[in-house]
Amino acid sequence: MALRELIITHETPELQEAFIDFVPQVFPEISFRRWRDRGGWDERYLAFALAEENRIVASASRQEMLLMLNGQRTRGWQLSAVGTLPEYRRRGLQQQIMARLLAHTPEAEPMFLFANDSVLHFYPRFGFQRAREHKFQAPCVLQPSAAALRALDVADPADLALLLRIAAGARPLSADFSACDHGRIILWYASNFAWLSLRHVPEHAALIAVAQDGELLHLLDVLSAQPFELRTVLPRLLTQPITRVELGFTPHGVWPGAEPAYEYTESPLFVRGALPLPRQPFKFPMLAQT
């Protein structure tokens, strides 16, 4: 039986259901249902799929993004959720999907993706090149404050609206290579991972995304329209004392003393087209990765 070609959008709920059923079969423990039901799937997210009757067997997604690149805001495209059901692999289905996805995407605009180690050989066939990223760290000895910042609950419509509003007006974390208005991507993480904590800083109209691992604080995102002294707020994020902070983004505008600590290889970055990357160490914001 011939496979049907599909393009799944925010306006095709019946196809979204098939996609939502497909994803956990390829990426266990990942769900798109809560994210979709909370309004995360908008016109910027498309899934290109192949289906046998009503069952999706292979898919790759494309997220339209607003990037800050070399000091300029520009449109870009991030690929994700590239997968095939095990029994349909080694048939060239992803090559067919990728060719169609690329044909629907402006070739002159920046395009990138974050891969996994099992498919590093695949993306260079389509003109993608691997780039190096680094995680940044800084020593930071702090005790928790009794006045903890409130954690958002994205299942609450008011908190969800707060996340999207602050993200829409937040300044980019880096002028070199960063994301703008990525609140719906943060919503995907908050809808899937209980370890992520989104804390509201009302006096700065800001949100801070963190996860704590013993004495190490993972600072994953800072959303604010105006800069503020971040270290004065950190004690209100802690559940126990810390000795260092690791940052999931290029931190120069938020934490100038942070240094690149190691190369980030957990999900390697691949780029294609007009995407001149910084010469100095950098990290695209982890909570803007799809």
Tags for this model:
12 strands, 2 domains, globular, 290 residues, Aminopeptidase, twelve-stranded mixed beta sheet, alpha+beta, 36% strand
Note down, in words, how this protein is organized:
This protein is an alpha+beta fold and 290 residues long. The protein folds into 2 domains: 130 residues, 3-Layer(aba) Sandwich (Aminopeptidase); 130 residues, Aminopeptidase (3-Layer(aba) Sandwich). Helix content is 18%, strand content 36%. Strands 1, 2, 3, 4, 5, 6, 7, 8, 9, 10, 11 and 12 form a 12-stranded mixed beta sheet that branches. The longest helix has 14 residues. The two termini are 32 Å apart.
Short description:
This protein is an alpha+beta fold.
Secondary-structure blueprint:
Elements: E1 4-8, H1 13-26, H2 33-37, E2 45-52, E3 55-69, E4 72-84, H3 93-103, E5 111-114, E6 129-142, H4 157-169, E7 177-180, H5 183-192, E8 197-201, E9 206-213, E10 216-223, E11 242-247, E12 259-272
Parallel strand pairs: 4-5, 10-11
Antiparallel strand pairs: 1-2, 2-3, 3-4, 3-7, 5-12, 6-11, 6-12, 8-9, 9-10
CATH architecture of the largest domain: 3-Layer(aba) Sandwich
SS-derived structural category: alpha+beta
Task: Output the helix-strand order.
Answer: EHHEEEHEEHEHEEEEE
CATH superfamily of the largest domain: Gcn5-related N-acetyltransferase (GNAT)
Low-confidence segments, given as residue ranges, are: none
Number of domains: 2
Examine the coordinates and then state which fold CATH places here, giving the name of the CATH topology of the largest domain.
Aminopeptidase
Major beta sheet summary: 12 strands, mixed
- Shape annotation: globular
End-to-end span in angstroms? 32 Å
**Helix fraction by DSSP (H/I, runs of at least 4):** 10-25%
Rg for CA atoms: 19 Å
Count of helices?
5
Mean pLDDT: 95
- Proportion of residues in extended strands: 35-45%
Strand count: 12
Can you identify the CATH class of the largest domain? Alpha Beta
